[in-house]
Amino acid sequence: MKRDIVVNQFVIKFANVNGTGSASANKLFSRAVFRMGVPISPKNIFPSNIQGLPTWYEVRINENGFLGRRGGIDVMVGMNPQSMASDIAEVEKGGYFVYDSTKPLDPALRRDDIDFIGLPLTEKCRELYTDARQRELFRNIMYVGVLAALCDMELTVPKELIAERFKGNEALVAPNILALDTGYAMARECGKCPISFRIEQRDNVGNKILMDGNEACGIGAVYGGATLAAWYPITPSTSVIDNFARYCRKFRIDPETGQKNYAIVQAEDELAAIGMVIGASWNGARAFTATSGPGISLMSEFLGLAYFAEIPAVIVNVQRAGPSTGMPTRTQQADVLACAYASHGDTKHICLYPSTPKECFEYTALAFDLAERFQTPVMVMSDLDLGMNDNISEPFEWDDSKTYDRGKVYTAADLENMEERFGRYLDVDGDGIPYRTYPGTHPTKGAFFTRGTSKDEYAIYTENGGKYVGNVNRLLKKWETASKAVPKPIIRETGKPCTVGVVHYGTSEASTLEALHHLNELHGISLDSMGIQSFPFAEEVGRFIEAHEYVFVVEQNRDAQMRTLLINEYEFDPECLVPILHYDGSPITARFIRHEIRDWILQTTTSPRRRSRFY
After folding, report:
1. Are 360 and 332 a contacting pair, CB within 8 Å?
2. What is the phi/psi pair of residue 491, to 5°?
3. pTM for the whole structure
């Protein structure tokens, strides 16, 4: 089968068995490509059990820098007999299926429109290694060598990475290098090397880093001034706290006394965790928790308390597929409404929507300022795709002269010099934000207690309807003030006449921007776009939607939750907001978005009652 040579622009996928040590080998391959200066976007797709079920690792290689999922597989490395039929079916016409031929491939699985490359990897491992576990592990490294040869890569970079990985344990370097060299030699001798998909050295990465969003959130919490993390482990958020602890051990140890300047508490459940966060925040600490959808459900009553009593709290929500237990190791943007309106009664919570590790870092740090400035819970809305996968990111930056925004806090001197009576819930400045005190600030003045029941401006319990209305209306005024302080949307205009726009947020961004690029290049369809960064919505959000006759809303959930939030907040005509929905648990692809928008436009332009301009 004759093919054109394709350099640095294809998708490779590894099909493995969970628990066999394949993750390290797959990361070795992807990070070698990255170190060669070629942008990558790896996605780990794994089951929620410990071992035995199929797992996949997909690597998008794209020297032009498109970082979302493209859709489609060009090269499949099939190491799992359980999933082999579906893995072969997934390979695109003209692609390759690389497999372990120690056991013959079922002829019924073969296709005429792709190439099969079989190498006896297990057989070779039996010759080289005596230990059963070593055979399993080094077979993975062996197929990395196979891929390097097939894609015409040199082994210099993978070998450097192996040496770095086992620095201090050099005895493991030689057997890993042996496996790598063996796989490389086997592929060179198979007669099909190199294949049409090649990897060449580039300088398209610059100073960018490779990091997952959970680590970025953990660092952001440290730089944001967090001193307490209270949590209960839940996939996929656990490593947020792991990384917070790791960076605290590096940056939060008093150099003179050796004492820790932080506390990390693993609570008995999510309710206890958020309760500790609220208690610590009320006492003046910067405290946070990390969780996922089921944890948000359990925390909702406490979140209502923090909203109504006006206590800061930061929650990092790494979303996964729900409802209930759902698919714990699959990604979705499924908690948009649950977080925006968490708790019973009329509540609204500040939410931030990062789309890159850099934004995870910045928004987590920012969340503590917003929480204290507005005396309210703030949620950082990551998801499994961003949180647990390596993502290319701009380097993090921090201004060491920055001071934290602690909000409106009266000191003992402020209280002592006050002639008027202190009112914990008085709107002194007309922005809806009252002044608070830390407990024990003054022996007789200030707030010593708080309550989640209805109260007047002086925190005295009352069931007077007028006082209740005044209080919740002040909270709404505070909400409007917050809309001017949260991150503004990122608007990209085509510069051409266009009455149709696209809205995206979080991890839908990369694939959406690529889809818009190809819609313009391939179909002549030019659309404005807006990336929503936060809730409450800044005024630019409403203006963008009002300026377009139709707006596509791209999101990864079944019920079009962001679209619902926009309609609820602005009372837009639902027909004007067109949902583009993907919710099978895998990250959304650029192809899916492009096809959905293109097909809708082609159908719409044939309808006489709609006269939108797309070209």
Report:
1. no
2. -110, 130
3. 0.95
